[in-house]
Specification:
With 308 residues, this protein is an alpha/beta fold. It has helices spanning 44-50, 68-71, 74-83, 99-107, 165-168, 176-183, 198-201, 224-227, 244-249, 255-265, 283-290; strands spanning 6-12, 26-31, 34-40, 58-62, 90-95, 117-122, 128-132, 136-142, 150-156, 162-163, 188-189, 195-196, 202-203, 210-214, 232-236, 269-273, 296-298, 304-306. It is globular and about 70 Å long.
């Protein structure tokens, strides 16, 4: 089935300490023609160029928390946007506390940015919708880390239904607005009093898809409620299960725990990342996860994963 684009490019899948050729956290989520940046670790703009991401399409940046390996690439990226004379506004979503230090740092150059930054500071409990368009909506959910941290869920809105031309031909010719109503799942009421039932003249061909970004957090089975039925889940897996106690004490998760949550949540695909630099290879993470959840994959930088 020919779905519109919904995919994620991994820009960085390492944890706080550099090592093993991996870089700090950053992802580019592509949806139709839009590109959303999720976290912005050191060197993110280099990865955007290296992996040929159309970064001029980035209008929203979602920051999970304010640890350096998730934000230190942001000043450089915004400065480059300014040097390229960007004019379009950028929205930055993050826990409270990023705006002041970042604005101070950017102002040290002695000139104002060529574009506006709209700050959306997060300080809420429970799930909250923080952004939406005609096609997509984004929810922010508090996670369990050492500082205020949010996961993000990107949910497609229902795709327009397809018109069954042969069935529709039995009814009077409809105008543009009436056809649009049918595609939106509504019945059409004619002036004659006749009703054209949506269920008779349309069909649903494309299912709405979803992508969850579960950044640094301890494992909690309760997350499965909000993650239920996700198309794809990215979950941190800093450690292997033999270091479960270390994961707990540092407010992180293991590959096994990520897989257990994916299984509980009945997601279609699990992507794991944020690997500790102590691991030269990430294949053991993938094996550990796949023993519990076969559709688990340890992400690789530069690779793009389809949300399907």
């Amino acid at each position: 089935m020919n779905y519109p684009k919904f995919e994620v490019t991994i820009l960085g899948c390492g944890s706080a300490t550099p090592g093993a050729g991996r870089h700090p956290s950053a992802q580019a989520l592509h949806h139709f023609q839009d590109v959303f940046l999720i976290d912005c670790g050191e060197g993110t703009q280099d990865r955007l160029k290296e992996f040929d991401v159309k970064w001029n399409r980035i209008n929203q940046i979602f920051i999970s928390h304010l640890h350096g390996d998730h934000i230190f690439g942001l000043p450089g990226l915004l400065s480059t946007f300014h040097l390229n004379r960007r004019e379009r506004k950028i929205q930055i979503f993050s826990p409270t506390g990023l705006r002041g230090p970042l604005e101070f740092l950017l102002q040290t150059g002695g000139e104002s940015l060529s574009f506006e930054i709209e700050w959306v500071e997060l300080n809420h409990e429970g799930s909250k919708k923080v952004w939406e368009s005609d096609r997509l909506e984004v929810e922010a959910i508090p996670l369990d880390h050492r500082i205020s941290t949010y996961g993000y869920i990107f949910k497609e809105k229902e795709h327009p239904r397809s018109i069954l031309v042969e069935e529709l031909s039995r009814f009077p010719k409809l105008n543009h607005l009436q056809l649009r109503s049918l595609k939106l799942g509504l019945d059409v009421h004619l002036e004659s009093g006749e009703i054209i039932p949506n269920a008779v003249v349309t069909e649903k061909k494309l299912e709405a898809r979803s992508y969850a970004y579960w950044s640094d957090t301890r494992y909690h089975s309760e997350y499965s409620t909000i993650l239920s039925g996700m198309t794809a889940l990215y979950h941190e897996a800093t450690f292997l299960d033999n270091l479960k106690d270390k994961a707990q004490s540092t407010y992180h998760s293991t590959a096994k725990e990520a897989a257990e949550l994916a299984k509980l949540s009945h997601v279609k695909t699990l992507l794991i990342g944020h690997f500790s630099s102590r691991y030269a290879s990430i294949m053991d993470h993938q094996k550990e996860a796949q023993q519990i959840f076969p559709q688990a994959f340890a992400v690789e930088e530069g690779k793009t994963y389809v949300v399907l």
